[in-house]
Amino acid sequence: MRTNKSIHYYILITGILLGITTGCKNYKATVLQANTNVPETFTGDADTVTIANLQLKQFFNDSCLLQLIDTAVTANFDIQSALQRVEIAGTDLRYSRSWLMPSVEFNATAGLEKYGDYTMNGVGNYDTNLSPNINGKQHIPNPTPDYFVGFRSSWEIDLWGKLRNHKKAAFSRFLASRSAYKLAVTSLTAQIATLYYQLLALDNEQQVIEKNITLQNNALEIIKIQKLGGRATELAVQQFQAQLARTQSLRYSTAQQITETENQLKFLTGKFTGTVKRDSSISALKVPGLLNAGIPAQLLLNRPDIRQAELELTAMNADINAARKAFLPSLTVSPYVGYNAFKSALLFNQGSLGYGLLGGITAPIFNRKRIKADYARTIAEGKQALYNYQKVILNGFMEVSNSLKGIENYNNYYQLKKEEVKSLKNAVDVANDLFLVGRANYLEIITAQRNVLDAELELANTKKNIFLNAINLYRATGGGWK
Length: 482
Prior knowledge:
This protein has helices at residues 2-21, 56-59, 63-75, 77-98, 120-130, 162-228, 234-268, 299-302, 304-325, 368-436, 442-476; strands spanning 103-113, 144-157, 330-341, 353-362.
C-alpha cells in the first residue's frame, strides 16, 4: 500500500515539474530583426571614402572654429550630461554582473521567543530540560533567546541564462550610452560650426551694408547738388533718402542677429561674457567642392545614432529572452556559517559553531499572468526599438542625400550669383554715367543700387548655405566626434 502511495507521489511531483519546465514552450523565442538593406550608393556614383573618417582639423581649417569646438566639448552642459549617462549605464552593467555571483552578508541577529506550553517547541524544550543527557549550560530557558553571528549567502543558479540575458542587455545599453555621447559631440560640433559660419555670413552682410550706405550717401549728396542746379526735384531727393534709411535700418537688424548668434555660441561653450573670436570673412573662405559620403552601408558603422539604435534593439532582444525565461523555475542556494546559541555567554563557544546549506526551486504558478504581461510589454518595447532603428537608418540616408545635392546645387547657384552681382555692379556704374548725361532717371539708379545690395546679401547667404550643407554632410555621415 505504501509502495502505491510512493508511486502516486512520484507521478504527481514529476507531473508538476514537467508542467513547470514545459510552461515556456507556449512562448516561442522572439528575435526582432531590422531590415538594413540600403542602396549601394547615395548618388549613383561609386562613392568609396566617407568624409566621416576625416579628423576635425582636416575638415575645418579655421583655428578660431576649432578652438570654439574644443572649448564646447569640455564645457558644454549637454556633453557633461551625456558623460553622466555613460557613468549611469556603467553602474547598471556592474550591478547586472553582480546577479551572476553569490551575495555574501555578515549577519548579527538577536531574538527572543516565548513558547506556549501546548506547542511542539514548548513541550519539546520542557522534556529536553528534564533529560539527564544535558548539562546546565544546555538548559533551554523560556522565553528563549536566539543569537547568531556569522555569514549568510544566497546564490541564484542561472540555469536557463535569464541572468546572463540581463547582463547582455545592460552591456548593450552601456555601449548605446557611449554612442549617445558620440552623438552629442557630433551634434554639438555641427551646431558650433553652423553658428560660426552664420556669424561670418552676418559679418559679411554688415560689411556689404556699410559699403552700400557709403555709396548711397554719395548718391544722395549728388542728387541734392543737382536739385540746387535745377536738374533734379525734391521727389528724387526723398526717394534717395528713403533708400538710405532702409539700408541703414538693415545695419541694426543685422547687428541684432550678430549679437544673438554670438550669445548662442557663448551658451554652447559655457560662457556668460566675452566675444567670439573670428579672423576671416566668409567671402575669403574657399568653397568646398563635392565631398564623398561613402557607401550607405558605412552609415551603420559611422553614425552614432544608428549605432545607438542598433544597440538598444540588441538590449531589447536580450530583455525579451530574459522575460521568456522567467516562466522557468529558478534554483537558489543559501549557505550559512557562524555562531548560534540561546545564551549570549555561550555564543562564541566552540560548540556554538554551525553551518548549513539550503537549496530550493521556485516556479511561477499563480503569478504567471503578471509574467505574461511583462513578456508582452517587453516585446512591444522591442518592436518600438526595431521601428526606431529602421527610422534612424532611413533618416540618415535622406540627410546624406540632401546634403550631397545641397552642396552641388548651391555651388552652381553661387557661381551664377557671382556673375549676377558683377553685372549689377556694372549696371550701377552705367546708370550713374547715363544719369549724369541725362539719359537715365533717378529711379533707375535707385533700382540698380537696391538690386546690387540684395544680390550681394544673397551671395553671402548662398556661400553660407554651401558651408552649412558641408557641415550637415559631415554630421550625417557620423564625423566630428573623435
